[in-house]
User: What shape does this take?
Amino acid sequence: MLNRLFIKNYALIENLDIQFDAGLNIITGETGAGKSIMMGALGLILGNRAEGKHFFREDQKCVIEGFFKINTYSLQDFFQENDLEYDDETIIRREIAVDGKSRAFVNDSPVTLHVLRLLGEQLIDIHSQHAMLQLNTERFQLMILDSVAKNQEILQEYKQNLSQYKQQQESLNRLREDIASANATLDFNQFQFDELDQAHLEDGEQERLEAELSQLENAEEIKRGLLGASHLLSESEQSATFSLKESLQQLQSVERFMPSMEELVKRLQSVWIEVKDIVDEVSAKEQDVFMDEGRLVEVNERLSLLYSLQKKHRVDSLSELITLRDELEQKILVVANQGEQLEALEKEVAKCLEALEEAGKCLHNARQQAMTQVEHYVQAVLAEVGMPNAQLKIELSLLETDKYKTTGADDVRFLFSANKGQPLQSIHRVASGGELSRVMLAVKSLVAQTSALPTIIFDEIDTGISGEVALKVGEIMERLANNMQVLAITHLPQIASKGQAHFKVFKQDEGEKTKTDITLLDKEDRVLEVAQMLSGANPGASALQHAKELIER
Assistant: This one.
């Protein structure tokens, strides 16, 4: 509920501080007095953009504050999600600096216009002549049915199912694209893998073969070298082993007389034993070396294959070939596994679709049950406001699954006829501005019984009505105010007479400036204002009496 509206230095307003009633608040004033300026200021704290500069005094900033009582609106989660401090009386402030820059605050915490707009939508519903276009939209028409049917939980479940179905369907489409792409290269990958797999690649094999090739190609030179070394170490007259053995014997003979030679004897003995071992190993290796033409051909062919594969696949080593082979194998396995994934995901999509269709039908059935109630209620209210022959017919059809929307699984049409003999047609084609105003008022009064909308503002929706009809419209607004706070800007005395609080907007000149002001009328001033609305600036006794009767009625 809007408790208070404070406006400073905005357009023709120098300072306004308005305290609103919890029920029906009437706002009147001559055309051009500044009622639209007040609505513009209110729009700024509801998240509308500041178009241009709006200053009563050019050297001061503009400040607009709204004080809202929100303890019954269950907005704690919204405040928490947007990191705002919650208070049962929430203050929304908008400041426009001299340079045109704008800032917004909720309980002194700075917020973006997006957050401000989201909060504003939950605090106030402004119903103007322009807003009557809502009635022509499918979203609004479905909202009416859902509000009357109390479909909030069913609609939420439907939206969750729709979101889950779309996500799973997107995943399925991506998987199908991946499979198609993988299948397009599968044959080529399989060919490359088979070629590498049949080569029986082993890590380190190339290095071993290259070493073996070098040995096979140089077998004679290697054998000659080994034989020469063996001869010098053990077979020549001055062989190393013979000389070492002789030297060892000489040192051992000296050791008897010089105990200090023991260490040298041990070292020389170790050298002699090591040389003998070397001679044995050289001899063994010499026996192993021989010219094997068959093996040479085999090694050359194997290395030729490895070099050829590396060149073909543009890699520099055998280990890279092995890595490529393993990668190709994984790609082939992925294609094989994707078939199973596809089957599982198709089952999941079918399951989600079944749940979505069930939720869509449940929502459709609930809306169908609410249709008759909406039709009868609106027709009853329209008869009350001077349209006894008006008819409203709602058509609701269940969509094909692939055409489901976020608003539900339905197409909806509001068909309307204002007069006898007039065929039912889409409401925006046959209803005049005044008729649309009354239809919207009927709809809003119905929705107000089930909606948690806190404050509704009727901004001059009384176009095209007068007399007894206007009086009935005022009575409906009065009934609305039993469930919610209502602000009505009107030019009709029949509606103006119905408020619990009546405010008058007026202009006055101060020096060289004209400014807009507002005042809460007392009982006598209210009678005078309604009388002036009935008969002009200088109402007579009959007009005053009529005004008094309207107010007391």
